[in-house]
């Protein structure tokens, strides 16, 4: 007998090409697919409810005697039948009806119906109930023994038909059980021992046909042990996929770098006016350990805005340079690339290191010369945007690539970038830095191919930013506050947010605000920076702001990431309700970098949506990026949080990263153990859940 995953749906009785095509549309090709096609919800048709017990919203089977049946000429013509059962009354209302229906529902007849009670003109009513007229000469039809599953269907495929097919697949499963791929003893020994009693087959059977007394509440929340048993298996398969990917990475070669601190590092640290924080020290050492290995590092450094990631990156680069290799730092925008370049140059040039910036501005001979020095190894550290990985750019011996602020990069893009840095048989080490903390549980899944380090400490002396939330009617107060702050020698940002997803409109809004503020604050020097200015213009404005030539900077969200002006201590965000939490937190992180008390004012335009209110409330209540990320996960769910590019990689069939987060914790060790003890089973498990469609199943 063929295993169920190889038996096509067409082998079920009555499934021809047309029906098969509809099933395929739902992703159902094999009998196993049918088994894994789980109900969205359940209906309880196992008992008859008394009419007197019905409440608005109850969905129930009821029985009663028809007392009247009339066509009602209300706003919409309908057929209205009233029934009673001794405990109460109910109306059945049909907006679409035939003459035969009216004659079926004659007074005196008994009917059994199913539907949802709602408030109507005559009291409780069910619109378009399912019904059947009971016959005096026959016993009433039996009630269902089990809860009735309601499946996701597609056009032209009836619930009833799909139920029959799945029931048939369940019967096949009795004769030919699915392989149990999760070894009992492993489950027993893990923190998932509470699920060990559930075999895969039992869980699947239960979820398609739950008994009448099943806990519908738990089932609807997705927290029934049968559901958790399946979610566990799916998430385990995902972890196995990531392990396989890591395994593959380990087989590649990289230049092992010197682990001990070099004189370069020591000199850099001596020259800084501050000490590394404990967290920076720990992360640097985690990175160093990886760099000492002969296979490429893939490490994510998460650190809240202002936690000092740039310095960690610089120290990692010095490891490469001390081992006579090159390093590259990639930033998402020219503005940020330039800022990194300036910082790194200040830090590293005194050590005799040649740092260069590969910008779009660089053309002709100058560019040629730069590329030549890069290829010869004369340039040790190169900073830039994506332009770093154009074809003509060749390094002499690139050992480390740092990617900054790219939390939206997916596994694919990360690996593609790394491959571009390949020279000979050697891949560069990769350090990814993100300021948008991703909740741990989510990171374990989405970034399971990466090792993660966390800088969970800010440099000492930072003042927490105080956040105010105000309606736009109080703008004049905000403007007054900007005036007095700037008069005291501080600097401020005024951010105009995205209008209807249009960059053009956003820039226009920024221009308008800039003009208004110039009128309102004639004594201040006010600059404008927006996404449609040339990179060079933007950089000039930013440099002038940083140098203190302007007191107020009106900007679009282009300043979101990385801009570092310690003297700026006031951040105003217009229409803050339009932005997501991560973005708001990023923007707020632009202030609070110096030692003066900083403020962030979120101006909103009422009325606020529920989500908008929750976001602004979260911003007011905490400065902790991780707490904010967790809140963001709760409000938006993981797909949104990771950005569209990445959602494909965490697409799950049954499990939910939000709901099943508590399962993730212990999964990695379980996956490692399974992989080690039973690699064949691990492979089958991966195949069962991931098919062949996803990249990590193929490695
Ligand atoms: P982010 O993690 O947001 O990229 P940066 O690397 O831009 O943060 O650092 C923010 C600021 O903190 C910079 O001005 C940097 O020089 C400074 N900084 C970094 N590490 C320390 C430290 N250990 N003590 C004091 N200041 C630090
Ligand atoms: Mg940064």
TrEMBL record:
Helicase ATP-binding domain span: 290-455
Coiled-coil region: none
Keywords: ATP-binding, DNA damage, DNA recombination, DNA repair, DNA-binding, Helicase, Hydrolase, Isomerase, Nucleotide-binding
EC class (word): isomerase
One GO process term, biological-process aspect: DNA repair
Reactions the enzyme catalyzes: ATP + H2O = ADP + phosphate + H(+); Couples ATP hydrolysis with the unwinding of duplex DNA by translocating in the 3'-5' direction
Enzyme Commission number(s): 5.6.2.4
InterPro entries according to UniProt: ATP-dep_DNA_helicase_RecG, DEAD/DEAH_box_helicase_dom, Helicase_ATP-bd, Helicase_C-like, NA-bd_OB-fold, P-loop_NTPase, RecG/Mfd, RecG_dom3_C
Domain Helicase C-terminal: 488-634
GO molecular function, one term: 3'-5' DNA helicase activity
Function: Plays a critical role in recombination and DNA repair. Helps process Holliday junction intermediates to mature products by catalyzing branch migration. Has replication fork regression activity, unwinds stalled or blocked replication forks to make a HJ that can be resolved. Has a DNA unwinding activity characteristic of a DNA helicase with 3'-5' polarity.
Family annotation (NCBIfam families): PRK10917.1-1 (NF008163), PRK10917.1-3 (NF008165), PRK10917.1-4 (NF008166), PRK10917.2-2 (NF008168), recG (TIGR00643)
Family: Belongs to the helicase family. RecG subfamily.
Protein name, UniProt field: ATP-dependent DNA helicase RecG
Organism: Marinospirillum celere
């Amino acid at each position: 007998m063929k295993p169920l995953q190889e038996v096509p749906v067409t082998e079920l009785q009555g499934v021809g090409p047309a029906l098969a095509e509809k099933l395929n549309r739902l992703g159902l090709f094999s009998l196993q697919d049918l088994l894994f096609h789980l109900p969205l919800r359940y209906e309880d048709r196992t008992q008859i409810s008394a009419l007197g017990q019905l409440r608005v919203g109850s969905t129930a089977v009821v029985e009663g005697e028809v007392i009247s049946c009339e066509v009602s000429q209300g706003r919409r013509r309908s057929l209205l039948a009233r029934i009673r059962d001794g405990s109460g009354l109910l109306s059945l209302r049909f907006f679409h009806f035939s003459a035969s229906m009216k004659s079926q529902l004659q007074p005196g007849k008994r009917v059994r119906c199913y539907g949802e009670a709602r408030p109507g003109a005559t009291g409780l009513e069910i619109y378009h109930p399912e019904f059947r007229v009971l016959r005096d000469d026959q016993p009433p039809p039996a009630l269902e023994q089990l809860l009735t599953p309601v499946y996701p269907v597609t056009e032209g495929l009836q619930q009833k038909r799909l139920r029959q097919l799945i029931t048939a697949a369940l019967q096949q499963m009795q004769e030919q059980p699915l392989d149990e791929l999760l070894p009992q003893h492993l489950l027993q020994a893990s923190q998932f021992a509470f699920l060990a009693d559930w075999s895969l087959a039992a869980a699947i059977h239960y979820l398609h046909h739950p008994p009448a007394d099943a806990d519908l509440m738990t089932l609807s929340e997705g927290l029934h042990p049968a559901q958790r048993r399946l979610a566990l298996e799916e998430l385990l398969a995902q972890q196995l996929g990531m392990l396989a990917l890591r395994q593959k990475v380990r087989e590649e070669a990289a230049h092992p770098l010197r682990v001990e601190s070099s004189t370069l590092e020591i000199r850099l640290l001596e020259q800084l006016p501050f000490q590394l924080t404990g967290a920076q020290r720990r992360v640097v050492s985690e990175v160093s350990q990886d760099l000492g290995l002969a296979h490429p590092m893939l490490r994510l450094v998460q650190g809240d805005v202002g936690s000092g990631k740039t310095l960690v990156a610089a120290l990692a680069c010095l490891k490469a340079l001390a081992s006579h290799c090159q390093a590259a730092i990639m930033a998402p925008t020219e503005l940020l690339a330039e800022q990194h370049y300036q910082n790194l140059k200040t830090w590293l040039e005194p050590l005799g290191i040649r740092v260069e910036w590969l910008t779009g501005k660089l053309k002709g001979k100058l560019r040629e010369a730069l590329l030549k020095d890069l290829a010869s190894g004369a340039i040790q550290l190169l900073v830039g945007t994506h332009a770093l990985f154009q074809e003509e750019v060749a390094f002499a011996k690139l050992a480390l690539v740092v990617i900054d602020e790219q939390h939206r990069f997916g596994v694919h893009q990360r690996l593609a970038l790394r491959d571009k840095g390949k020279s000979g048989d050697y891949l560069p080490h990769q350090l990814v830095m993100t300021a948008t903390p991703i909740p741990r549980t989510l990171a374990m899944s989405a970034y399971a191919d990466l090792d993660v380090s966390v800088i969970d400490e800010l440099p000492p002396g930072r003042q927490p930013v105080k956040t105010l939330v105000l309606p736009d009617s109080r703008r004049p107060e905000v403007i007054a506050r900007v005036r007095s702050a700037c008069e005291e020698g501080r600097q401020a940002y005024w951010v105009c947010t995205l209008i209807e997803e249009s960059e053009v409109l956003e820039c226009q809004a920024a221009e308008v605000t800039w003009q208004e503020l110039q009128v309102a604050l004639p004594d201040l020097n006010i600059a404008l920076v927006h996404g449609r200015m040339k990179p060079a213009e933007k950089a000039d404005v930013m440099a002038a702001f940083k140098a203190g030539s302007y007191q107020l900077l009106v900007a679009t969200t282009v300043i979101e990431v990385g801009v570092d002006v310690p003297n700026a201590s006031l951040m105003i965000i217009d229409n803050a309700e339009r932005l997501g939490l991560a973005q708001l937190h990023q923007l707020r992180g632009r202030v609070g970098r110096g030692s003066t008390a900083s403020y962030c004012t979120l101006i909103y335009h009422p009325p606020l949506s529920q989500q908008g209110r929750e976001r602004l409330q979260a911003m007011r209540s905490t400065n902790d990026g991780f707490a904010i990320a967790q809140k963001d996960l709760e409000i938006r769910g993981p797909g949104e949080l990771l950005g569209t590019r990445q959602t494909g990689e965490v697409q799950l069939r049954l499990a939910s990263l939000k709901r099943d987060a508590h399962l993730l914790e212990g999964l990695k060790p379980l996956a490692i153990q399974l992989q080690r003890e039973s690699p064949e089973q691990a492979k089958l498990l991966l195949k069962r859940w991931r098919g062949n469609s996803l990249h990590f199943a193929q490695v």
